[in-house]
Amino acid sequence: MHSEHPGKFLLNIGVAIGAVGALLGGRFVDRLGPSAVLRTSLGGCVVGLLLAALPASWTVLVAALCVVGLFAAVANLALPAYLVRLFPNQRRRVLSLALVGSAGLSILYPLIAEGLLKLTSAAGRGGFTLALHGLFAGTAILLLVGTLWQRFDQRGGGAERPTPVAETALLTRSATVLLAALMALHGAADLSASVWMPRVLASASFHRQVLLPGLVSSAYALAYLIARSLLSAAPETRWRRRLMALPGLLGGTIFLGGILTRDQVGTAVGFLAGGCLWALEYPAFLATLSRAGPRFGRAMAAASAAGGVGGFLFSTALGALGDRWGDTELWRMLILPAVAFQLTGLGGLWWVLKHGRSLAPALDHSSANLAIEAGTGPKP
């Protein structure tokens, strides 16, 4: 078999496995509860990582990555629901912090990859193989510790006590579907822009090549980390409706303005500045979606699966357009993700105008009841 085939297979299989895991995980979260599903999915990730740590053929590695991808997709759905159960009156803040952790890992990934590549040139293939499988083993140990902690944590272990919000849907079915669709559109735009930005910055579209594309990608992850860290520190109810519309509208417009400068630095700055804004959008969507009650897990699953598959198809379509336009016109590819972010903001504005005002009293009443139950609010 040609050596290029396994690499392409590894790149594409994650999308399919993640979509299957998301769809299965949503139903399990709603039926079994997030705590049990989170424990099981973390354990499955540990098994897959230990399998990947074995120095075997690439087919074993593919099987291991399938196991990890499947259970990781389930864990990504169970974790937000688990956090909402633990902190029902601090939804947006804890979900923002969880997404901050994801952004931090996105910063580390390129650094780890660069380190492995340097290790290959310095120590040869044997050193690379040892480091790669050792990385899988070390990650498995860390996840195992986390799984055991989650199992014996007094707040997460044992029988779950569903909160009134977890059982009662404050969102109508149409509001839930529209919100999940907006989250999927956001995910597809983010994925396609992230995938193609390094390629465009390194292309002949710009007369000046000033910035390293990898540096811009790391800075983008850092922008997400900073923006969502600030959001987690903001009061829970502040800017609730604005954050569902303005970040996409303003961020997409700034990104589009940077693209139209036809300058590499201008494009990168527009991308990073826009990212600082639209990074605030997804936590606001997710916190509001958590009000879907028994439909929360399935709605998250639909949004995650549609966002992943949509991002894959969007990125593939952009690649086809790039092949057609040529290297000097690749900058035009980025216009479509920028417009997609603007459409997400417009959709958020429509959602707020259609559902936001009628939902606000119910949210305020629910938050007050939860504060009373937690002992942080005034007694009636």
Produce a short descriptive summary.
Helices cover 79% and strands 0% of the residues. It is an all-alpha fold.
How is the topology of this model organized?
Elements: H1 4-32, H2 34-52, H3 58-86, H4 91-152, H5 164-167, H6 173-201, H7 213-233, H8 246-260, H9 264-278, H10 281-289, H11 296-325, H12 335-374
Keywords:
mainly alpha, about 80% helix, about 0% strand, disordered N terminus
Question: Can you walk through the features of this model?
Answer:
- This protein is mainly alpha-helical and 380 residues long.
- 79% of the residues lie in helices and 0% in strands.
- It has twelve helices and no strands.
- α7 packs parallel to α9.
- The longest helix is centred in the N-terminal third of the chain and has 62 residues.
- It is globular.
- The protein starts with a helix and ends in a 6-residue tail after the last helix.
- The N terminus and C terminus are likely disordered.
